[in-house]
Amino acid sequence: MTFKEQILQGIPSELPQKKELDVTVNRAPKRKQILTEEEKKLAIRNALRYFPKDWHQELAQEFKEELNEYGRIYMYRFMPEYDLYARPITDYPAISSQAAGIMLMIQNNLDHAVAQHPYELITYGGNGAVFQNWAQYLLTMQYLATMTDEQTLHMYSGHPMGLFPSSKDAPRVIVTNGMMIPNYSKPDDWEKYNALGVTQYGQMTAGSYMYIGPQGIVHGTTITVMNAFRKTLKPSETPAGKIFLTAGLGGMSGAQPKAGNIAGCITICAEVNPNAAIKRHEQGWVDELVDTIDELVNRVKIAIDKEEVVSIAYKGNVVDIWERFYDENIYIHLGSDQTSLHNPWSGGYYPAGVSFEEANELITNQPEIFKEKVEDSLRRHAAAVNKHTARGTYFFDYGNAFLLEASRAGADVMADNGIDFKYPSYVQDILGPMCFDYGFGPFRWVCTSGKPEDLDKTDQIAIDIMSEIKANAPEEIQQQMQDNITWIQEAKTNKLVVGSQARILYADAEGRAKIAEAFNKAIASGVLAAPVVLGRDHHDVSGTDSPYRETSNIYDGSKYTADMAIHNVIGDSFRGATWVSIHNGGGVGWGEVVNGGFGLLLDGSPEASRKLKNMLFYDVNNGISRRSWARNEEALFAIKREMERTPELKVTLPIIVEDKLLNDLF
């Protein structure tokens, strides 16, 4: 069968043969056995409902084996025969071009060069899934291939509930992931209900089909590291020869060495999974691989002496580096961590003193012992960090729940008031006041032609638009404008594309709308060969309510509320988004965050122009409004400026209360 025929058939008419799995493919860790015998029966019953009854006898035994072996039912037998990658949009069988764009984005998320655990349909973060199983993938692609522009596909945590009549102005797809009743949103609830096949962890851009490989986090990390050095170095100093120490090379965290190279420092990134370290080295995201701590110490001393700009992956545990560098008196300028600590008990963080293989065995067979070792390691990790910060190291939490889980393990990470952490989130110190409050966030696009020359053209369009805006921009946002102009100018040189022909930059509402409008005109005139998909990371101004990351610089008590994210996805849905998504979970953990995203296909039409202006304006200013109501000075500046430019916008502004008045009351 051809590629198009396979897409259109959905669940095959004949039972496929069992697959021989490639042993070189990076596999998801085996999940812990949490279901009772009766619950395992329910999980198998749930899985079998996708298939004809005369297949049940054979598949039931197979699904039982998968459940017992992996803790999940993935339905490996139903993996497609064709390769998964972002094909040109015209290669997809589709009635709706919008649906074809979504198919392209789904396949990009599952590309073996992009996805962290492609066999398990996990894109990044250890558990960030596009679907729960391969039957869901097959059905979803079939629905997308046959839907019209007057239907909407509703996705329930990877399950395609069905096509429903709607309208041309409605989203083509509505996605929810992990939207649990609040009292059922603890880590073990994810383990249980995911094993039952009724919910999934969509991370942020995994389950919303908007992941573009590590490039997205390269940009955010570059901006973060550059500004962290600006905060800590003297004006006459550069980052060359200065150390940024971190951990994690799987999925999104694999972008850290590339970001460090762009920022111009020595980046040392520990990774316990040797396959992940080797993959990033082969992809060119890290310069050098080091196997032993002695070798690392010697190499780093040379790099410091020569003031090198170099990235080094250490195949081992980062705790060992923190401890050894202290003994060796190696000064660490910046320190952080980007392991998947939102998922601490299932392979998101590997404890020091235990091999990678031993740890995976403990996860499956002795989860309580594994948990004890993780907590011991977190206490040891934090103690080593504290010794370095006493010498002057600037340590920040990179929004991966490191400080949260360390505090739960009893590590010494709390401030003297016993409420706050002693180290800031990078959003509190950097991205919040410098980017999000001004409306700057991760605007991204994908050229659906698959042609690098189209990406080059869009890069130039973005540079021209940003340069025009910068010429008249207020001083408060000049640095942001210039950083992102420089980023785009150097993007091709830095070889950031993995998978789809995609790009990201940080822009505000004005920049996003003007760039998008220029793209739409370029499509209409034939300058670009095919439509462009717009989107963003959920890690943005407006899409995410996350008290330990995106909204950590909200101080009016509302950082634990999720109204903003819900309003964001609803507001985008009727203002023109092609698809919208809302998730429980994300980078800081199940039950810790609610986040929403969107996708918008530009096809050169007047309708696309109308939608982009309306939707992108709201998508950003919803968040600025909430941040200004929290009394954030930068957001107040931004929203007042926007109301002056847009008379139709009327936002409730806070009256500032004098501290003395309140202090005199108590």
Structure description:
There is one protein chain. The chain is of the alpha/beta class and 666 residues long. It is built from 22 helices and 17 strands. The strands form three sheets. Strands 3, 4, 5, 12, 13, 14, 15, 16 and 17 form a nine-stranded mixed β-sheet that branches. Strands 8-9-7-6-10-11 form a six-stranded parallel β-sheet, sandwiched between helices. Helix 2 packs across helix 3, helix 16 packs antiparallel against helix 17 and helix 20 (606-629) packs antiparallel against helix 21 (633-645). The mean pLDDT is 95.
Q: What is the structural class? A: alpha/beta
How many beta-strand runs? 17
Described by strand count, sense and barrel closure, the largest sheet is: 9 strands, mixed
Mean pLDDT across every amino acid position: 95
Oligomer: single chain
Count of helical segments? 22
Strand content: 5-15%
Keywords: Cytoplasm, Histidine metabolism, Lyase, NAD
Function: Catalyzes the conversion of urocanate to 4-imidazolone-5-propionate.
Subcellular location: Cytoplasm
Pfam families: Urocanase (PF01175), Urocanase_C (PF17392), Urocanase_N (PF17391)
Write the layout of secondary structure elements.
Elements: H1 3-9, H2 37-48, H3 56-70, H4 97-109, E1 122-124, E2 128-129, H5 134-146, E3 151-156, E4 159-165, E5 173-177, H6 187-195, H7 215-232, E6 243-247, H8 256-263, E7 266-270, H9 274-282, E8 288-290, H10 293-305, E9 310-314, H11 318-327, E10 334-335, H12 356-365, H13 367-389, E11 394-395, H14 402-408, H15 426-434, E12 441-447, H16 452-471, H17 478-491, E13 502-507, H18 509-525, E14 532-536, E15 544-545, H19 563-573, E16 579-584, E17 594-602, H20 606-629, H21 633-645, H22 659-665
Parallel strand pairs: 3-5, 5-16, 6-7, 6-10, 7-9, 8-9, 10-11
Antiparallel strand pairs: 1-2, 3-4, 12-13, 12-14, 14-17, 15-17, 16-17
Helix pairs in contact: 2-3, 7-8, 11-13, 12-13, 13-14, 16-17, 16-18, 18-20, 19-20, 20-21
